[in-house]
Amino acid sequence: MRIPFVAGNWKMNTTVAEAEKLVLEMLDRLDRIEGVEKVLCPPFVSLVAVSMMLRGSSVNLGAQNMYFMTEGAYTGEISPLMLRESCEFVILGHSERRRHFGETDEIVNRKVKAALANNLKPILCVGERLEENEAGKTEEVINRQVTAALDGVGPVVPSRSREQTERVSENLVIAYEPVWAIGTGKAASGEQAAATIELIRSVVAKLWDGNMAQELRILYGGSVTGANIAEFASQPEIDGALVGGASLKAEEFVSIVKHAAEIKARIG
Ligand code: PGA
Description:
The protein has 268 residues and is of the alpha/beta class. The chain has helices spanning 16-32, 47-54, 80-83, 95-100, 105-117, 130-134, 138-149, 190-207, 210-215, 229-233, 250-267; strands spanning 5-9, 37-41, 59-63, 89-92, 121-126, 173-176, 217-221, 240-243. An eight-stranded parallel β-barrel has the order 1-2-3-4-5-6-7-8, surrounded by six helices. The protein is globular and about 45 Å long. 2-phosphoglycolic acid (PGA) binds at residues 9, 177, 182-183, 221-224, 242-246.
């Protein structure tokens, strides 16, 4: 039984003061929602402030990116060693990183390995672009991205702390985010997303094994809102959502998390 998972990716939004205000507006309500893992991913500069606010709550913290080296002369970069003081998760391979900052499959792979080696859990993003989708290349692109990002990873990962399990399926989450659905208001349909997620699960099964693939959580992301979360959460294949724009509105994010938890509890 996979525990549902909803993460909010705030992207390059909120000052530290705004981040604190947003957390204050939703933390109590989020904290009380059971049966779903909840993660907030604010910008780097707000991580410490937000981590202090989340302390003692059931809400976890994630970063939006990191570099793959642990320290050194890499001006402007943030390392896994720095993040693991405050974060449990880190979003890696987001399509905006691939598109605006030239992240290749190889870079994403190095980041995934570095995160796991440093006790951070990657939320690995994959997804096809509009022209790839229209050219019928979704399967090919997803296959390539997942295989490349997970090259040399698992099924057992290095574990530094005693409590940490070594099963990669418990230390990694994949988010399927079709690029054409991100920030466009044009979400994929539940069936479309579920079909691609099934494909991702089969790629993972080939890389590791079937059990591991069944344990791994795979989310949908791209224009998820309070109004359409039911369409995704009601698909047994889809384990939750990575939410961008709607995660910046307290009411709406709480409603997304609540609906996801309720629907998943109902369909078992
Ligand atoms: P969106 O972004 O919900 O604003 O479409 C999702 C994401 O990029 O993670």
